[in-house]
Amino acid sequence: MKQVFQIFILTAVLTTACYQSGRAQKKAAYKDPTVAIELRIKDLLGRMTLEEKVGQLSVLLGWDMYSKNGNAVEASEQFKKALATQHTGMLWATLRADPWTKKTLLTGLTPVQAAKATNAIQKYAIENSRLNIPMLLAEECPHGHMAIGTTVFPTSIGQSSTWNPDLIREMAAVIAFEARLQGAHIGYGPVLDLAREPRWSRVEETYGEDPVLNSRMGEAMVKGFQGNNLKSGKNIVATLKHFTAYGVPEGGHNGGSVAVGKRELFQSYLPPFKAAVKAGAQSVMTAYNSIDGIPCSANHDLLTGILRDQWGFKGFVVSDLGSISGLVSNHHVAANATAGAAMAINAGLDADLSGYGYGPALIDAFRKGEVKADVLDTAVARVLRIKMKMGLFENPYVDVQKTKSVRNETHIALARKVASASLVLLKNKNNVLPLSHKLKKIAVIGPNADNIYNQLGDYTAPQDENAVVTVLEGIKASVGKGVEVSYAKGCAIRDTASNGINEAVELARNAEVAVVVLGGSSARDFKTEYLNTGAAQVKAAEVTLSDMESGEGFDRSTLDLMGRQMELLQKIVKTGTPVVLVLIKGRPLNLNWAADHVNAIVDAWYPGQEGGNAIADVLFGRYNPAGRLPISVPKSVGQLPVYYNLKKPANHSYVEVDDRPLYPFGYGLSYTTFEYSNLNVQVSGAQENLSVKVKLDVRNSGERDGDEVVQLYIVDKVSSVVTPVKQLKKFKRVFLKSGLQQSVEFELNAEDLKLYNQQMNWVLEPGDFTVTLGGSSEDVRLKRDFTVQ
């Protein structure tokens, strides 16, 4: 009887346990991957407190959220406190290293340590939060993951100079792979701002001045980052920056107000974002600026009306760092933090990058009735949806051993390939390039000839010196043992105190050719002070100047070469030695004197870690340059704006200078020549079914194999609203062997020819158009009119 009784008790216990387990499973539907995501989100929201919901919208600064002791890495006390008190659900820049974060090669994380850190953070968050919600980790990824030991590619302005979206998509996939292996889930990028104000400090982060080129590059980055499966373990979410019209601040002041009308906004500034959203982007970042008096971080028409209602965006919107607080402190449209938080979330801004824009302020706004429950739940749901799409509830950790694949030989080779494709040959008088292999004495001169960090651009982590190839090193590796390569810095980028000009001039005088490497720098240093947004605090006068004259916060009033660079160049040219000028920089600079007096000019922008090899490949003819300018180079600041697709009527000349840029959009030379012929334009269909097929032949008529970038521009001859004097619509980078010819085809559709009419609608108006084809916005090889019925 006792045994029977024990069996009865055991059965009762098991029955109760199974019942309770069933209830637990029913309550934890959000943890069940077999349940539809929307049902999982609904289930989880129903369990969350107000504080937990607000915590999911707080993106805290991540680099203090781990502690490192030798090779051991664990969640820091600061993270533990943040989780306990703020219920935070997201971190930003956990793996970032630079002077602002004060993380160096010693205090920062190797890829192996990075994976350990993100795993430790995830483990602590899941095991020590009531609902076991994993963290979402965002990182800076514009031209490589901004972390120690990753591959550094050319900055965005160089990427767009390739005019090769397929190559940029391949690059983006590598960046995503390296970031995801270390535990990141979101990559900040691409930056889709139109750079029509070269004085602005962040030109290097953009794809230039044109909406079509920006759109194609943005699509490529999104597809490369996100792939087809966010659960793949090698893809990350793309965050589009900065929404919107951030790149044309008045006076070039970073974050300043912009003067953009609604039609111009729709026709020029919004299309790159729309294209990237249609390509599947899952995240968007708001811009610091205001448009027509409304800050972007509190603009309901922008964040809800356009982004979601018109474009169907399903992802989440995140503020730029501190921009919600900026509604109070900068724009002065909110009286206090509570009002600012309510304005932002009610406009459609979901997540707060900083942790202090929402937090207690959003809780206060909710309790006061200024934010409704459905608004808060919608924002939280958008964040949770990404976590579930990435499979983080089921697989929050990464394999530490796989981080050995970060920055491998294949990735380095790709960095060289992208850098080579980005180089723009601006001048080549008497074919001084490529350099002869018979040269015996080469002088390499200039502040950017042998400077690792000046070559890499902003948003770059500290580097092992052996990982970066400078121009001097690239040239030395390219020549034979019998060639003497001498080097002198000559001067600094900005500082005029030191003077090595005489030494440099003597080297040039005694050389057969002088390769002079000048330009600018976005290299941050540990002496510079930074704002709480990460932008540099610029001081007009310092005893010792850093080289930094570009990069976030470093706006310019002129575009002249700084310091004593022009003096150095002029004295070297005066020696009579042939001069090749290589420019490493982040924005267009004044090149008027160089264009008149220097034999050859190569624009490299910031070419990344393999820049030295890529530049040497072009200088010695192993690579035929085919980069094209994604931004016009002005003759004077007084010409600005000078972008090619300005509105009609066309500009006229000034008293001092004509209206044309020194080098136009789309411009770039080659070591070979190309001929265009046999243009054929066929129009069929109407309105939404319109098709304009453009076909032409391109022939390599020179003696070297090379790439041509065929560019198609449209002119709307008569329209109901003012349209650009010309507008790029299609382009294709084509490789042709010497003497060979290839047919190139483009197809224009209704979307390519529409305008935003007086009634603020996108329409295709019947009428006459002109199509032009050539090698730049001003190089018209073929031209044909056609009519849309």
Main features:
single chain; 789 residues; alpha/beta; TIM Barrel; Rossmann fold; 4 domains; disordered N terminus
Descriptive overview:
By secondary structure, the chain is α/β, with parallel strands linked by helices. It folds into four domains: 1-30; 43-405, Glycoside hydrolase, family 3, N-terminal domain (TIM Barrel), CATH 3.20.20.300; 423-631, 3-Layer(aba) Sandwich (Rossmann fold), CATH 3.40.50.1700; 674-788, Sandwich (Immunoglobulin-like). 30% of the residues lie in helices and 19% in strands. Helix 8 links the parallel strand 6 and strand 7. Helix 8 (211-226) runs parallel beside helix 10 (271-278) and helix 17 crosses helix 21 (611-619). The chain starts with a helix and ends with a strand. The relative contact order is 0.10.
The CATH topology of the largest domain turns out to be: TIM Barrel
- CATH architecture name of the largest domain: Alpha-Beta Barrel
CATH homolog superfamily of the largest domain: Glycoside hydrolase, family 3, N-terminal domain
Q: What general outline do the C-alpha atoms trace?
A: globular
CATH C-level name of the largest domain:
Alpha Beta
**pLDDT below 50 for ≥5 consecutive residues: which ranges?**
1-25
Rg of Cα set: 28 Å
Q: Major beta sheet, specifics?
A: 8 strands, parallel
Distance between the termini: 97 Å
Widest beta sheet: strand line-up: 11-8-7-6-5-4-1-12
Number of strands: 27
Mean pLDDT: 94
What level of helicity do the residues show? Answer: 25-40%
What is the overall number of helices? Answer: 22
Number of domains: 4
